[in-house]
Predict the structure.
Amino acid sequence: MRFLAFAILIASSVLFAADDNIVGFNKSSSDNQRALETQMDASINAEEMTEWLRRMSAEPHHVGSLASKEVAEFIAELFESWGYETEIVSYEILLPVPKTREIELVAPTNFVASLREETLAEDPSTAVRETLLQPYNAFSIDGEVEAELVFVNYGMPEDYEILERYGIDVTGKIAIAKYGRSWRGIKPKLAGEKGAIGTIIYSDPADDGYAAGDVYPKGPFKNDSGVQRGSVMDMPTYPGDVLTPGRGATERTRRLKKEDASTITKIPVLPISYRDALPLLSAMGGEVVPQEWRGALPITYHLGPGPAKVRLKAEFDWNMVTAYNVIARLTGSDYPDEWVIRGNHHDGWNHGASDPLSGQVAMLAEAKAVAELAKAGHPPLRTIIYGAWDAEEPGLIGSTEWAEDHADELKAHAVAYLNTDGSARGFLGIGGSHVLERYLNQIAEDVKDPRADISLKERSRAYQVVNGDAKEREEAKDRRDLRISPLGSGSDYTPFLQHLGIASVNLGFGGEASDGSYHTLYDTYEHFTKFKDPGLIYGATLAKVTGRATLRLANAPRLPFEFKGLADNVALYVKEIEELADGMREKTGMENRLIQDGTYAIAMNPYKTFGPPIAKAPVPHFNFAPLKNALGRLQESADAFDEAAANNDETSAAVNKLLYTSERLLTRDAGLDGRPWYKHHIYAPGFYTGYGVKTIPGVREAIEQREYDKVGTQIDIAADVLNDMADRINSLAEML
Amino acid sequence: MRFLAFAILIASSVLFAADDNIVGFNKSSSDNQRALETQMDASINAEEMTEWLRRMSAEPHHVGSLASKEVAEFIAELFESWGYETEIVSYEILLPVPKTREIELVAPTNFVASLREETLAEDPSTAVRETLLQPYNAFSIDGEVEAELVFVNYGMPEDYEILERYGIDVTGKIAIAKYGRSWRGIKPKLAGEKGAIGTIIYSDPADDGYAAGDVYPKGPFKNDSGVQRGSVMDMPTYPGDVLTPGRGATERTRRLKKEDASTITKIPVLPISYRDALPLLSAMGGEVVPQEWRGALPITYHLGPGPAKVRLKAEFDWNMVTAYNVIARLTGSDYPDEWVIRGNHHDGWNHGASDPLSGQVAMLAEAKAVAELAKAGHPPLRTIIYGAWDAEEPGLIGSTEWAEDHADELKAHAVAYLNTDGSARGFLGIGGSHVLERYLNQIAEDVKDPRADISLKERSRAYQVVNGDAKEREEAKDRRDLRISPLGSGSDYTPFLQHLGIASVNLGFGGEASDGSYHTLYDTYEHFTKFKDPGLIYGATLAKVTGRATLRLANAPRLPFEFKGLADNVALYVKEIEELADGMREKTGMENRLIQDGTYAIAMNPYKTFGPPIAKAPVPHFNFAPLKNALGRLQESADAFDEAAANNDETSAAVNKLLYTSERLLTRDAGLDGRPWYKHHIYAPGFYTGYGVKTIPGVREAIEQREYDKVGTQIDIAADVLNDMADRINSLAEML
């Protein structure tokens, strides 16, 4: 997450004092709202949160487990006890769990991978064995393969370009890839596309182990038996239940046959620890890997293929299991049909203390405080719906099924979706729809860092001033708000934002607690409270942040949407895309010339197999005019709205409806090219990065993937989307 | 070494065809010279070179050993047999050799370092034990110390700034530093300045071991017992015999007392292998090192201090030994008083196959071919003096003593000094005085790469086009010559160039053979011929290059000096220094503001000890005008000379004398501030980098070291030097 920040704090504090009216509120309603928030803060109790955390993380509680159902029931009981209309809404989903997991080095020596995480005397939680969900990658296909290994670095598209230059083809081989850089599901997807017949993913200690810091239990990092579990479902195509894309996985809905579920991998894949990876990598030969590819194991890394030959067997029980979402509602006193939705999942791969319970307990603390305000005579004006989602880990399934199941209602009523997930300590990370940039900045101005006597915003700003590059520092001089990050994927906001077009936000603390527990046996209460947020002091602060986020949306006379932040960020994306095309054109042209005139061949080391790159089609110039014209209109309309809004605090249900449905205009029913589930044309997870966001994805990915004939159409669609938004904003400006 | 290169080879080949007249020659003498060179090439025999290499590397032959004397005698016999007037010129020098070497971890556990390199069955040379010079750092003081360890990364000034931010002081501690980044002597020098009482230097496998590639004997890289020996004499103060700075170490010369020799370290230091380093580093505690500091051992690196506590004992026999330089002379037929000096050392730390014998055999092959030409009726017009230096390894001693001993004659007669040292395969590296840039480029145009059917220059150019950054590529479009590197230190050119002001050159191949044998037991014939230059095909090519370099200087009617290359490179250095000052001023100002207004403090992680930097004095603006005015005059004079030279191939002894003594004008008798031995004001080794060059060192180092009150004086000196050179060039232009 990258913030922008001001060069001189003192100046910035003077320029943009935190005592402005809250966006959407006038002076008097702002004062009332801030008083309410102070009252709310008093109800947030870190000790209580710690106790909830301890209780819910006591047992492994992955979707389908008895413990997970009990966690859902515990959450439901809490909500109910606080006065929420609470129900457990369940869906029937396909979930593979491991039956056979075998990785064996069969040549040139023999070694059988343990695939086992060790119990630690220092952490009683890790003594659990019976209900432990063993390390695996959910939605790997079943299979048994035997082949030579090829080391594919992080398994990204650019890695295969390098392998090609070494003359190495993964066809018929098993790809061994490091965790990191991309979402893990990309690794088997791309390996399969390139012809590999199996994939092994391991955590290299360079990225996640002793090279990063002391390992658990001495420090927080991954020890040599730790394995990152995780889904490898092709989520950039669609998330959620693999059998019911676009539909809620209710008991009687129409389902695909498993063979037709395109998001299950095409080749088997298993994750391993670096302890298990060491003998495999040590047995490899071939050229030494490029310097940037090497990890931190005490060996020389080689590309292969072979002579290391591996047998990989992965078989799963493909169960239909029930996912239990807890849905708790507090009906709004004034605008019951306008819904603020707030969610955090509750399922973990095992104990899930950090992921997701650290966020879950912040949501619970917030919900309790909101309920107490209601009981004290300050009910929210709008309806608040809390969702504690199940089955996020295997593929955002609980939230996706609920969002799909209630799509029409949500499109009509949802004001915004506010998400949290695992959270630690450090700086407030803010991602979200840019129509909410101002509103989110005000919240960060109003909440203090629990360690420093300064607002969260000023602390993030200080971080950026100290650590940002010259450009970031320069921009910060002129920009009032910290730039919030566009959302890709990786948590439950995806169905709301990218499928339904509901303005969404993701909040959490990070940057000062390192993480080796992610998706391992070691994501325990002990680990979390020792290393990630002792005393849950940042957790309690998160509840104050999200409590404000929820209540300001719920209580604002006029919804706190504004459009200058959107226009400014879209302008940045358009510029980035133009620079992307220019950079690719220049680089491709230069490389092609050097390939053609033999310069590359002359420069290569004749003692190595690494050769010149393959020539690529020249990158044409594109007509960006439609996009830039639309951007111009968006900027003008945003200015008009801003001026109108500043001079006028009148509002109406009609204005609010047009405000909160504005994000819908950034979607198209047909979705993105090749992945119709994703409707949003400004924010999407990358097709070949996974979690990483691609802004204006239709245009950006057509260029990145060198599908030049598609660019013009995608520019037109993006321009249409922005023009529709500009029309809407102009209408709103006229109504004020 | 960084070359500049042209974007399109075809174009460049057309623009700058290699059939120009050789600089200093007219059409007819160029043709004759090129014919001679072709004849010379036929005499160069890689098999004979290989046999010399095998013979000279058969035994460890460090200075003072019997084998070293035998190598000197062998070389002398060869020269004599070819008809050179040959003598062995000896000097009596102080040389410490190890008596006691002990490193022991005494807390929290016990471990005794082996300090021993293993014999390998695959390499018979490594079976030698009796005459092996054990791993040590020459010119460490004697001492026994016991203290906690502090990890100081590479032990550079910026590393201590980081340690200071962690609140770590090395006073009274033992610093453990990685080899690399700086010349090794900087590490104990700086550690001592900071208060450490001992230094351990080790080769981290990240830089020089399994992480770089397969280790010996499987591959060329350093195995876990290999230790880099090397001098830690404070060579940036003065090289050569520590007792006789500025004077030849003849038998009866005046000597310093050992206690007054400022170039011996102030604290004891020993080098170790990464196998011996592992238990020491594993036992350390304290904060985890910054990510950029970590190495490739399979541990978490910590800064300390302690709890690892080490006892280090280093005692040496401080012997007076004889260094044997072989001096072979072929008197010039026409200009016997103009001397071309060509050298390469012959002493190795042990077998020294790569360092220095790979270069030595190229010099011998060249010398034999030159002698054969002479016998065939083509003696050199000028006198050629070959120097096979002893005692380079402990501190450039043989060459320095000879240069000091013959300082007056050399200043009067030496046309230039041409150096080689260890050489491998790949690209021709060219360093040298920029008055010789054009001449060196022409040689690289005239010799073909032995693997590719293209000139050495075009191959280097191709490399730079493919690997250079945009700026380098851009510049290459307009520049005829590959930019040659300025010389710092690290081989025998230093006394000639930087003490006497003799234009100097250093040549060698590299970039396609990796090196883990450097200064270890494993620098053997077997290692060299397997990994570094099988068949000595690049070695033979080096002889062709240096043969041309020697003969063109010897035979050119007008010496091949020109000044546009000098002016252009000096312009670059002036620009760099201005940018250095601007960058430091901006960064210091920004940091000071952020320290003062508390931004740094806010941005720091409260869970870590790493704090804000310490405020520094603001960087003032400097008056660079005198330097830039002088540069302008230099550029104009260079243009005038260029024009005059192009229209006129007349020459005279007077012109030649003014040409070859021009480099002397870049020196000042008083030398550099604080190190009077170094007289050259354009090129010097860095006071805190060692080998790394500092151009216009007086000005640059005053700024880098934040001694702002010295900058003005240094600018005036540098301007004087350039003005003197411009005057000389103008005189020369008028004479033509």
